[in-house]
Design brief:
Rossmann fold, seven-stranded parallel sheet, 18% strand
Length: 285
């Protein structure tokens, strides 16, 4: 099997590359420069003969959302997906499946959302997700399209968790704002297995929530981590502090979505880490 990956040098991409190679997969890394308009022949060459394409490309959203950074976040997702899809559509022999990721940030911080939900937030992140997904949907009907909407990906060696864990190491952990904001998460090991399941299960298509089934919020996360690490929860950090430091991007921390993986459960996927307690025990070990 041959699989092409954009964003292969990123946090998820590095894990996924090692995971697929261990499965005996031939991995083709599609670099940022391959997704430029004048590199289409090279991109088509890299995609040729691939059974699956996984689109993970996207600049980090963990920054202050200046006008320039917003443009970088948008272009690194929307333009790269546009160029990728155009190249796939020109292939004589197309891949069986395209996995083009998105995020649960497409939803508002109200209610519990399923894959059938079509009520979206009106903020910056949601608008990026909608445009991002719209470009992926332009892929040929000959290609099975899956759009995994990712929650917060938890891992020991990258992503959000090391930064979230750090205050607890120094007895400075605390809940953020009200603590009631949703915290939809997925353990990296589950995410990799889900991607593998999607590649090998032809009936899976469309929007897929890649989140653990346990409904979680900042309070549950905070007090579970405190208990596991035997640390107190001294602080309540007001949302205004984050707004002063990060501006508009503070919403990543002070707001959150509650998202349920109905489709994955219906397809019979069995989570290794369905609850936050087991996931945090593994990560803190």
């Amino acid at each position: 099997m041959k699989v092409a990956i954009t964003g292969s040098t990123g946090f998820i991409g590095k894990h996924l590359t090692v995971f697929l190679i261990d499965k005996g997969v031939e991995v083709h890394a599609i670099k940022r420069e391959h997704l430029l308009p004048d590199q289409k022949p090279k991109l088509i060459s890299l995609l040729n003969g691939c059974d699956a394409v996984i689109n993970l490309a996207g600049a980090s959203i963990n920054c202050r959302w200046t006008k320039a950074n917003k443009q970088k976040i948008r272009d690194s997702r929307i333009k790269t997906t546009q160029h990728l899809v155009q190249a796939i559509n020109e292939l004589a022999a197309k891949p069986e499946v395209l996995l083009s990721i998105s995020a649960v940030g497409i939803y508002t911080d109200k209610e519990v959302w399923s894959e059938r939900s079509v009520t979206y937030d009106k903020g910056f992140l949601a608008s990026v997700c909608l445009e991002w997904e719209a470009e992926a949907k332009k892929v040929s009907s000959d290609v099975r399209l899956v759009i995994p909407r990712l929650g917060v990906v938890l891992s020991k060696d990258g992503g959000a968790f090391p930064k979230m864990f750090l205050p607890f190491r120094f007895f400075a952990g605390g809940r953020i704002a009200s603590g009631n904001q949703g915290f939809s998460w997925i353990h990296i090991e589950d995410l990799l297995e889900i991607f593998w399941t999607i590649i090998n299960t032809k009936k899976i298509k469309g929007i897929i929530h890649c989140t653990a089934p346990q409904m979680c919020d900042n309070l549950i996360f905070t007090y579970t981590l405190a208990k596991i690490t035997h640390r107190p929860v001294f602080f309540n950090i007001p949302s205004c502090i984050f707004r002063i430091i990060y501006g508009e991007s503070a919403s990543i921390i002070t707001k959150g979505q509650k998202v349920f993986p109905y489709k994955l459960l219906n397809y019979g996927y069995s989570f290794q880490y369905p609850e936050i307690k087991a996931a945090l025990k593994n990560l803190c070990n």
